[in-house]
Amino acid sequence: MKPAPSHPLRPLLVFLAALCLGAGVFSLSGSSAHAAVVPHAAAEVETVEIVQALVARDGDYLQRSYLVEWKGVPVVVEDPLIRVPYETGAPLRMNISKRPYPRAAKSHGLMNFTVVRQTPKDAKPTITSDPIDKAENLRAERIEVRVKRVLTAQDESFKYRGYTVEWDGKEAYVRDSLAQTNYKVGARIPVILMRLAHPDPLVATGLLGMTVAPR
Question: What is the predicted pLDDT for the residue at 138?
Answer without folding.
Answer: 67
